[in-house]
Amino acid sequence: MTRPRVVLISMYVGHEGVPHAGGRYLLELQRLLDDETELTMLTVGNRLNHEAATRPGVPRTLLLLGHESGRGLLGKVLNRAVLTADTRWRRRDPGAPSLPFVLGLMRSRQARRAIRDADVIDLQYSESIRLVRLLRRLNPRTRIIGTFHDVMSQSFSREPQHTPEDRRYWGGVAARSRAHERDMIRRLDEVLVFSRKDAELLGDPPHTVVHPPLSVGDEPPHQPAAEPVVVVVSYLARDENNKAALWTIDTVWPHVRSARPDAVLRFVGGGATDELRSRVADLPPGSGVELAGFVDNLSAEYAGAAVALVPVLQGAGVKFKTVEALCHGVPVVTTTVGAEGIEGDDLYAGTSDDPAVLAEHVARVLDDGRPAQSRSDTAQKWAQQTYGRDRFAETIRRTWVRRGRAPA
């Protein structure tokens, strides 16, 4: 049987050891497509992706487009002009596709040939999906799939808006993003989302819910932790995760330490900002706050934790960090944003957006983890089945099949 020719477009690349959950999703998708299709992956040729291209787990055929080194003075001037224009455009439209990538695509005969020959084009993240109109012109007959990792219009609407200027700016960005989302959906053959909540936000037509493959299927039952460790796992370079970490230190953790002076808070994940590093360094001795950074073995962190805290207040979409903790059977305390889109019953040891109440939930588990662990044992079985690799692969394979939906 002839294998389908697939072009995967993402502004990020998954690889072994990638420090963020979205990259781990891409890694699993890349592996599936590399194994079962003739895959060409297109991404922007920035420094981060050039480094990623040298790591294990990237597709066999990976084209990095844009940011090409200039040939001579004119080439350098043109590249600088493109980067400047991209930066300015993103101030008005943060969800826009990468201008260097678009120009790199138009320059690359190999990339355009792959698109013209593709049976399926798979677009990851909204900024890639924004290219659907251009791709449809390059190949009118191909099947184009778009995966919304989150709903950007909702994410933009949740940005802090403390001043009239903030409200005008983010209100305008969210409105423009919503208009783009409606246009993208009309032009796609298949729309993938990570939750029914996101499907409802995006609206008609019906969407396919794909559950990210966040469970390897053999995570052991969680045993009671020997120490009162509260773990926060996230890619700390992301703005919403950085703000969540600072909010936790300033408003949640003092309440926890008041109830449990022996408690330890561990921030696990790469990309800590200078602001966060400075805040942790300035804490008095014995504050119990540790900045662990990136670790190779997340399972060990979850195994040593009494509570997994997910304190995000911004962003949109399913929070992979919440699902990962559930898959490892750790009692989870989270905000409503951290819990949204995850549709199991009775999953959490506590949810609240009030820092004092959130701290009460954490302290209760630290004092007596048995009721929360019993709930988490049941939640773990559900999460491992719902977010397992077999179910993910089955859903993705179905999206390759042409079902007759005519693009707008």
UniProtKB/TrEMBL annotation:
An example molecular function term from Gene Ontology annotations: glycosyltransferase activity
Keyword Hydrolase included in the entry's annotation: no
Statement: the UniProt record of this protein carries the keyword Transferase: yes
Keywords: Glycosyltransferase, Transferase
EC number(s) from the headed UniProt entry: 2.4.-.-
Gene3D superfamilies: Glycogen Phosphorylase B (3.40.50.2000)
Name used for this protein in its record: Glycosyltransferase
